[in-house]
Write a structure and sequence with these properties.
Hda_lid; Hda lid domain-containing protein; Rossmann fold; alpha/beta; DNA replication origin binding
């Protein structure tokens, strides 16, 4: 399987409309019914769509997005927006863990008050699988809703790739997509990043998307 990070990534704005639900019907329904005073922890493997879903929620409810891989969780000290979304909590450093600990306490104390807010978090394991986090923080993650975000099936991923390619004016056969699955990637995140890069490559080469062209592109990326 080809390894490495593509330089050009998908620039589609995450939303509920372009999130492919797959087996996550119940989760999406609950998220869309979100009310002040609720806390939700969503976990799943890399590429399952956690960041897309969290950003879609933040956009819909005009909340604050924090990526723990890139920034610290601030000490809100009671001055927080009505929705806080923290992505990749498996990457929290010691100070951010302490701030999240107090933020969850604030959420609990304000649940039925006028200053109630929503707290959403994502991670790559269930709460008790986050061995890097302090125990009292892991315990607090289970105080409200916990959901596992399931990967899309191969059938759903193939249809997604073909649909998004068509939206870009790219003709893509099922055989081509199947080859990609067997030789490159098998999750929505990496497939959409690859599609964005291939879109630019096909335009620069004035050629249609095909297996030979994809092989050429991937070899070029490996040599770069």
């Amino acid at each position: 399987m080809i390894q490495g990070i593509l330089d050009i990534q998908s620039n589609i704005e995450p939303s509920f409309d372009n999130f492919v639900v797959g087996k996550n019907v119940d989760l999406i329904y609950q998220i869309q019914q979100l009310k002040l005073g609720q806390m939700v922890y969503i976990w799943g493997e890399k590429g399952s769509g956690k960041t897309h879903l969290l950003k879609a929620i933040i956009h819909s409810f005009d909340g604050r997005y924090i990526d723990a891989q890139k920034e610290q969780v601030p000490n809100f000290q009671g001055e927080h927006p009505h929705l806080v979304g923290i992505d990749n909590i498996q990457s929290l450093d010691r100070e951010s863990q302490e701030h999240l600990f107090y933020l969850i306490n604030e959420w609990r104390e304000s649940q039925i008050q006028s200053n109630a807010f929503c707290l959403l978090m994502t991670g790559d394991h269930s709460p008790f699988g986050l061995s890097h986090l302090r125990e009292d923080l892991r315990n607090r993650l289970s105080w409200d809703q916990i959901w596992k975000l399931e990967h899309l099936s191969e059938h759903d991923l193939m249809n997604l790739f073909i649909e998004r390619a068509s939206n870009k004016g790219m003709s893509c056969s099922p055989q081509t997509v199947l080859w990609l699955f067997k030789n490159y990637a098998s999750n929505a995140s990496s497939m959409m990043d690859l599609l964005a890069a291939l879109d630019n490559y096909t335009l620069s080469k004035h050629r249609q998307l095909s297996i030979p062209l994809i092989k050429e592109f991937l070899e070029h990326k490996d040599d770069a």
